[in-house]
UniProtKB/TrEMBL annotation:
Keywords: Signal. It comes from Henosepilachna vigintioctopunctata. Gene3D superfamilies: Pheromone/general odorant binding protein domain. This is Uncharacterized protein. InterPro entries: PBP/GOBP, PBP_GOBP_sf. Residues 1-19 form the signal peptide. CDD domains: PBP_GOBP (cd23992). The keyword Repressor does not apply.
Length: 121
C-alpha cells in the first residue's frame, strides 16, 4: 500500500509540474512510454533519464530555484492539488525534503524521490 501511494504521489507531482512543459522535458531527456510503464511497476531508484526529466520539470515550474533549493510553498501546492495525503504523510515528506542537499545535478534528485516514496513511513 505504501509504495502505491508513494508512486501516485510522485506521478501526480510530475504531471502537475509538467502540465505545460512536459513535452519539452520528455523530449530533452528521452523519456518514453516504456519509462512510464517501468515507473508504474515500481522502482526504488530513478533511471538517469527520469531523474533528469524530474529535475527539468521542477526547475521549469519554479519548484526548484536557481540554487537547487526546494520552494516548499510551490511544492506543497502541487501536493495539495493532486494527491490526498494525510497530515502525517505531508509532514514526513516535508521533513525529509528539508534534509536534502540542493539539487544541482540529475543524480541529486534521488533523495527527493526517496522522500516521496517513503512519505508514509
Amino acid at each position: 500500500m505504501w509504495f502505491f501511494k508513494s508512486l501516485l504521489l510522485f506521478c501526480a507531482l510530475v504531471l502537475a509540474i509538467e502540465a505545460k512543459e512536459r513535452h519539452e522535458c520528455e523530449i530533452k531527456h528521452n523519456v518514453t512510454d516504456a519509462d512510464w510503464e517501468q515507473m508504474k511497476k515500481g522502482i526504488s531508484h530513478l533511471p538517469d533519464n527520469l531523474a533528469c526529466f524530474m529535475k527539468c520539470a521542477l526547475e521549469k515550474d519554479g519548484v526548484l530555484d536557481n540554487a537547487g533549493k526546494i520552494n516548499f510553498d510551490k511544492f506543497n501546492s502541487y501536493i495539495d492539488n493532486w494527491v490526498k495525503l494525510t497530515e502525517k504523510e505531508k509532514t514526513n515528506a516535508n521533513n525529509c525534503l528539508k534534509t536534502i542537499a540542493p539539487i544541482k545535478s540529475c543524480s541529486d534528485i534521488q533523495p527527493l524521490y526517496l522522500c516521496l516514496v517513503n512519505s508514509d513511513k
